[in-house]
Amino acid sequence: MKLTIDPKVFAEAVTWAARNLPGRPAVPVLSGLLLVAETDQLTVSAFDYDVSVQATVAAEVATPGRVVIPGRVLAEIVKSLPGESWAELVLDGYEVALTCGRVAFTLMTLPESDYPTIPAPPAPLGAVDGPAFRVAIEQTAIAASEDDTVPGLTAVRIDAEGDRLTLAATDRYRIAVRDLPWSLRGMPPGGVLVHHDVVLDLAKGGISGEVALGWDDKLIGFCADGRVVTARLIDDKYINYRARIGWDHLPIAATVNRAALTTAIKRVSLLADKGMSVRLHFTSDGVLVQAGTGDLGRGTETVPCTLDGADAREIGFSPAFLLDAVGGVQQENVVLHMDPDHLQVLVRGQDSDSYQCLVLALRLA
């Protein structure tokens, strides 16, 4: 194998793929990145039997070939390369020589024949705008659980119905749902569950173009910007989240400036110890945001709001959960819908229902 490549492009592909290297690989070869050089392109891959990632970039390939290079070492090296216009990669026996300007590295390879076959992504079922999909992931994945003892709660649920794609996640204490348009190309076999880390990594990698999605009964694939991600699906039951969102049964509604409410929650939360709630009291004069105890002190701030319905009693929430819910709103104003018993709040943007987040209230002492 012999090729030349833009070192910046090479570094971006290697760095992105290396982020998905397993911490404890099932077999030693999976600690490496698989590099495949073909006509005019280089593909950098990582795989751990559950998730695979592949980044394909342009390269001048003199001699096609395949090689597995220790991934984390290669990632550190490419970050340090000088700002030259090209870098050269040459495989010679069990060694790879990487040259960039006056800098040269020689790396021992891992046995390429031991590297498992990377699964091909399922055929695309539809496509969605990349930046919009990234926002939808960020809005919903934060509501997924980190507790792997209940696999379904660690997932983001993806459903497709006609020209609407829906992402949803819950950890039992909140439900975040986002609808967005997509162009349907096939017949989806039903909704699927994907671990939230998979879609979050996809979002963190940056998505600028269209994302093609496809899934079957075992695997889901995402293709965008020369990058391909496949992931094994989570086989578990999921709640009927559609039955739990909406605000027809929540007669009290408060409309508040999103930035002002966010700032107030963050400010008074400085006096909220871990596990303590932030308390909100809604009246026609505004919403009083307060936190703290007699031992530490108290913080309060009143934020103007428009209240529709009876004055609400005091209601408490996890400050982190409430900030996540309000932070998911893209509009200037946020609407908080509440029930008379003050057991929950549904957060959405004013004049928009594409994003909704239901948060359970905390018991007040």
From TrEMBL:
<dbReference type="GO" id="GO:0003887">
    <property type="term" value="F:DNA-directed DNA polymerase activity"/>
</dbReference>
<keyword id="KW-0238">DNA-binding</keyword>
<dbReference type="GO" id="GO:0006271">
    <property type="term" value="P:DNA strand elongation involved in DNA replication"/>
</dbReference>
<protein>
    <recommendedName>
        <fullName>Beta sliding clamp</fullName>
    </recommendedName>
</protein>
<dbReference type="GO" id="GO:0008408">
    <property type="term" value="F:3'-5' exonuclease activity"/>
</dbReference>
<keyword id="KW-0239">DNA-directed DNA polymerase</keyword>
<dbReference type="Pfam" id="PF02767">
    <property type="entry name" value="DNA_pol3_beta_2"/>
</dbReference>
<dbReference type="GO" id="GO:0003677">
    <property type="term" value="F:DNA binding"/>
</dbReference>
<keyword id="KW-0235">DNA replication</keyword>
<dbReference type="Pfam" id="PF00712">
    <property type="entry name" value="DNA_pol3_beta"/>
</dbReference>
<dbReference type="InterPro" id="IPR001001">
    <property type="entry name" value="DNA_polIII_beta"/>
</dbReference>
<keyword id="KW-0808">Transferase</keyword>
<dbReference type="InterPro" id="IPR022634">
    <property type="entry name" value="DNA_polIII_beta_N"/>
</dbReference>
<dbReference type="GO" id="GO:0009360">
    <property type="term" value="C:DNA polymerase III complex"/>
</dbReference>
<dbReference type="InterPro" id="IPR022635">
    <property type="entry name" value="DNA_polIII_beta_C"/>
</dbReference>
<feature type="domain" description="DNA polymerase III beta sliding clamp C-terminal">
    <location>
        <begin position="254"/>
        <end position="360"/>
    </location>
</feature>
<comment type="function">
    <text>Confers DNA tethering and processivity to DNA polymerases and other proteins. Acts as a clamp, forming a ring around DNA (a reaction catalyzed by the clamp-loading complex) which diffuses in an ATP-independent manner freely and bidirectionally along dsDNA. Initially characterized for its ability to contact the catalytic subunit of DNA polymerase III (Pol III), a complex, multichain enzyme responsible for most of the replicative synthesis in bacteria; Pol III exhibits 3'-5' exonuclease proofreading activity.</text>
</comment>
<dbReference type="GO" id="GO:0005737">
    <property type="term" value="C:cytoplasm"/>
</dbReference>
<keyword id="KW-0963">Cytoplasm</keyword>
<feature type="domain" description="DNA polymerase III beta sliding clamp central">
    <location>
        <begin position="131"/>
        <end position="238"/>
    </location>
</feature>
<dbReference type="InterPro" id="IPR022637">
    <property type="entry name" value="DNA_polIII_beta_cen"/>
</dbReference>
<dbReference type="InterPro" id="IPR046938">
    <property type="entry name" value="DNA_clamp_sf"/>
</dbReference>
<comment type="subunit">
    <text>Forms a ring-shaped head-to-tail homodimer around DNA.</text>
</comment>
<dbReference type="Pfam" id="PF02768">
    <property type="entry name" value="DNA_pol3_beta_3"/>
</dbReference>
<comment type="similarity">
    <text>Belongs to the beta sliding clamp family.</text>
</comment>
<feature type="domain" description="DNA polymerase III beta sliding clamp N-terminal">
    <location>
        <begin position="1"/>
        <end position="119"/>
    </location>
</feature>
<keyword id="KW-0548">Nucleotidyltransferase</keyword>
